[in-house]
Design goal:
231 residues, mainly alpha, two-stranded antiparallel sheet, 2% strand, elongated, WD_repeat-ST_regulator, WD repeat-containing protein 26
Length: 231
């Protein structure tokens, strides 16, 4: 396992395990799954945190109470984020129960968990309403593929909701590079074009890129309007 104390860069401001994790995320997002898996194995660093891995296994197995316990055990979450995350899980759980005809389990879970989570009345009403409206979706609960895809969607929603280090912001490496490029463009005195710039070196336009020849002339015709008054 890679030590989290190893630092990178001349200033020692970058944690190596975070940097590698962001690279692995980038490889997965580009579709380079084999390369990402290889880097995970070689570095001992996983793209997914241990908390999220546990959540993933519990969600795919339908262990909803275990999933709730895991979310409650994640350290560093604000109350708002924790409530939002629990709401997503509970809403999905109710959807599955209701579509499978198990209204009793859906209502039992709602009565048991909603007061514990300190949901607002609005959220409780939405959850209760979802029990009845979800039946209109006509989901085939006997089809494992349908359930699997629904649970994958829940995981994607959780990834967007849970903050670092549990989950990473989407396309984090691209964001970091783009932010750096934009800062270089903003500080470039002679930058005068739009479009992509090379990231092979720091961006800096030379004075020779300033236009020095006239290629088009715009003539402005001034029209004077005289208003006569007989007063």
């Amino acid at each position: 396992m890679e030590s989290s104390a190893v630092l990178l860069g001349s200033k020692g401001l970058i944690r190596k395990h975070e940097f590698v994790r962001v690279i692995i995320q980038c490889l997965y997002s580009f579709g380079y799954q084999k390369s990402a898996l290889c880097l995970e194995a070689e570095s001992g660093i996983s793209y997914k945190s241990s908390d999220f891995k546990l959540l993933e296994s519990q969600i795919f197995s339908g262990n909803w109470y275990g999933c709730i316990d895991t979310i409650n055990g994640i350290k560093g979450l604000t109350d708002d984020v924790r409530v939002s995350t629990l709401f997503l899980v509970l809403k999905h759980c109710l959807l599955e129960y209701s579509n499978c005809g198990d209204d009793a389990s859906a209502l039992a879970m709602l009565r048991k968990e909603a007061p514990i989570f300190h949901f607002s009345k609005d959220k409780i009403h939405k959850l209760a309403y979802s029990i009845f409206t979800s039946k209109d979706m006509n989901l085939d609960c006997s089809n494992d593929n349908v359930i699997h895809e629904l649970r994958k969607k829940l995981l994607r929603d959780l990834e967007k909701t849970l903050p670092p280090p549990t989950c990473l912001p989407d396309r984090r490496l691209e964001q970091l590079v783009e932010t750096t490029v934009m800062a270089q463009i903003d500080s470039c005195m002679y930058h005068n074009f739009s479009g992509a710039v090379s990231i092979y070196e720091d961006h800096c336009c030379g004075r020779d890129q300033i236009p020095t020849e006239t290629i088009q002339v715009h003539f402005i015709i001034l029209i004077s309007l005289f208003i006569f008054s007989f007063d």
